[in-house]
Amino acid sequence: MRTSPNDPVDAVLAEGLKNLWYPICPSEFVGERPVSLRRLGRKFVFWRDQTTGKLHALEDHCPHRGAPLSMGIALGDRIACGYHGVQVRADGVVTSVPGSPGCKLEGAKATRSFHVTEAAGAIFLYNSSENVDTPPPLVLPEELTNDQEYSSFLCYTEWGGDYRYVIDNVMDPMHGTFLHKQSHSMAEGDATATFGVRETDTGFVFEKEGQRGVNFDWTEWADTGIHWMRLAIPYPKTGGPGGSFTIIGSYTPIVPNVAAVFHWRVRKLVPGWQRDTWRFLYRNRLEARHWAVLEQDRVVLELMEPDANQREILYQHDMGIVRLRRHVRKLAQAQLDEQEEKAA
After folding, report:
1. What torsion do the CA atoms of 221, 222, 223, 225 make, to the nearest 10 degrees?
2. pLDDT tens-digit profile of 111-121?
3. pLDDT (tens digit per residue) in 62-71
4. Where residue 239 falls among pLDDT bands split at 50, 70, 90?
5. What is the model's pLDDT at position 166?
6. In whole angstroms, what is the distance from residue 81 CA to residue 279 CA?
7. Alpha-carbon distance 212 to 206, whole Å?
8. Where is the Rieske domain positioned along the sequence (predicted)?
9. Containing structural domain, residue 116
């Protein structure tokens, strides 16, 4: 997606809105050794405390000379820069300067620190505009927090396109009828439809009128301190127990035109044989089909021109996309207004 240099709102959205939670990577990406990941317009270093396993995150920038802290050594809740040994604590405070003990750098909060947590097999980071002592809680949909009633698999991939094109794709139920028509039940239902918008407490549902439980018939967008999307695809009995197959999605910019794509595949299952049966069936029969569906989406989005969204002719099926784009632009404008007020 091509960002206009004269549009500050678009520039904010390109890097991701501030003061929101974002998924960063699957949990297994980060161990005790520091890991550098670029997300949300900056580079982060993540590591775990060797004793407690607690996760930490800093900007991957040593305050001394700017060397990447990820090349250093993790020391519990601190990381020692590999360039000159400067030690930075997880809260961004420099605790030791071995080459010049007692210098003014010691004791200074000189590196940006970020709050991180783990849930549903992924690492989440609070993208604060400035350092905060306590972030708001990470509020995920019930499908990812209620292990007694739901079972899920995290599907993570990285696509060569703007993360906003991924959001547009999910906010477009009609593409399933055409692009994915040979996948599972996506050939069912009407190829012609009228859509409507239904408000929720946390966002809205964009849905086909007069058709439910037939195909990819609706998409929900929600803001619970993290932006996420939900959809359901009806399954035949051969798809195993659990009724409709739910997908929860959340998307994070890596760099311009590269997106971190998170999809949790979920079924509503009681513990016991239903859960075990579905998980076995998913791994052995269904997962490959779902990757094939995602691959169809990826190919289309990566072949779209960066300025495709600036040369669109939209129609009624695109109401959800227009609604969501307008909403997030308002959020970005409010963020810019707040920055200006603080500067004044």
Report:
1. -120
2. 999 999 999 99
3. 999 999 999 9
4. low
5. 96
6. 43
7. 12
8. 21-125
9. 16-126
Report pLDDT for 228. 98
Number of domains in the chain: 2
Q: Which two tokens stand for residue 317?
A: 């099926």
- The verdict on 102 and 221 lying in the same domain is no
Sign of torsion, CA 14 12 38 24?
negative
